[in-house]
Amino acid sequence: MFRFAYPFFLYFLFALPVLFLLFVLLMRSKRKNLLKLGDPKVFSVLLPDLSRGRQYLKFILILIALSALIIGISSPQLGSKLEKGERKGIDLFICLDVSNSMLAQDIQPDRLSRAKNAIGKMIDELKNDRIGIIVFAGKSYVQLPITTDYAAAKMFLSTITPDIIPTQGTAIGEAINMAVSSFEENKHSKAIILITDGENFEDDPVSAAKTAAEKGIQVFAVGMGLPEGAPIPTFRNGLPAGFKTDNAGNIVVTKLDDNTLQQIASAGKGAYVRANNTQSSLDKIFTEINSLQKTEFEAKVFSDFEDRFQYFLMITFILLILEPLLLERRNKWLSKIKLFN
User: Fold this and answer.
1) Is the predicted pLDDT of residue 337 greater than 50, yes or no?
2) In whole angstroms, how large is the CA radius of gyration of the chain?
């Protein structure tokens, strides 16, 4: 396993393209100033050995050296010892609604963003539990298989948008069924957290929740939205372009379906809570999930890591030595060599 002990320093890599752009602008400015002083042919006679290509090469060597230095101080490490350990936890799938109605702003900043923020905070609270993510709209997809890699879970969570699923609609039952089938066959305690506004147009989610409960999987539901609802914003080229309308030209208002979500939670032997603008409501769900019986499971983890920063610092050292030795002028002796004459 490869990791960085101090990944924060990697952000400095974003400064390198900016430095290169500034260097290019500086070189162009110097060239324009020289042109103002006289004919370029005169300068080529006065400075026959001056090479602009070498100036660029020297600067690129410096950028590579800086890149290696930044990676080095980020302390890259390679897992060298894999051990088996025992952990106690549960298996948990989060089914997140990503239909367009989740962009409604009756919960600020919008339903989907609020849900993602709440899920991120919940992931931070997990200890030894395994988590997976399923996204759904008109279709359902496993965004992240069951795992203990919480960093990967948060990374995948950050990429979720309504555009991730081309088929719009809301098929809650399909999402629950997919979560049930995606759990591994084991004796772990299992739970599903369904996060949606409850507007279902495709299937029978209550039956799906009942089937899950019969298999020992509890289904919890979190309602995102308010009963009075809100219009669904539309976007064009990433910019707001009004609100979704029906065939008659009326603005479509999406409302939280409390009744359906309560029935799902009841059939799934779980609990239902409604999110609002003051709380995420996942805290109550998380408390109930923590009360589930924890099951021991085997996990392979890297217990020892070896530092690899010295290789990158060596590259930096070598390049910084080579850079002054590379002159900006052409080598007179090498220029006399004519291999093809």
Assistant:
1) no
2) 29
Residues 6+ apart with CB under 8 A from 274: 222, 223, 256, 258, 281
CA distance 231 to 102: 10
In the chain, which ranges are continuous DSSP H helix? 15-37, 40-46, 52-73, 111-125, 150-158, 172-182, 205-214, 258-267, 282-290, 309-325, 332-335
According to CATH, the topology of domain 91-293 is: Rossmann fold (3.40.50)
Tell which wins on pLDDT, 330 or 313: 313
Residue 279 pLDDT > 70: no
Amino acid, single-letter form, for residue 11: Y
* Spacing of C-alpha 237 from chain mean position: 21
Tokens, residue 210? 């009942």
Distance of CA 22 to the CA centre of its chain: 30
Domain chopping of the chain, boundaries: 2-79+305-335, 91-293
Residue 145 preceded by cis peptide, ω within 30: no
For the entire predicted model, the pTM comes to 0.63
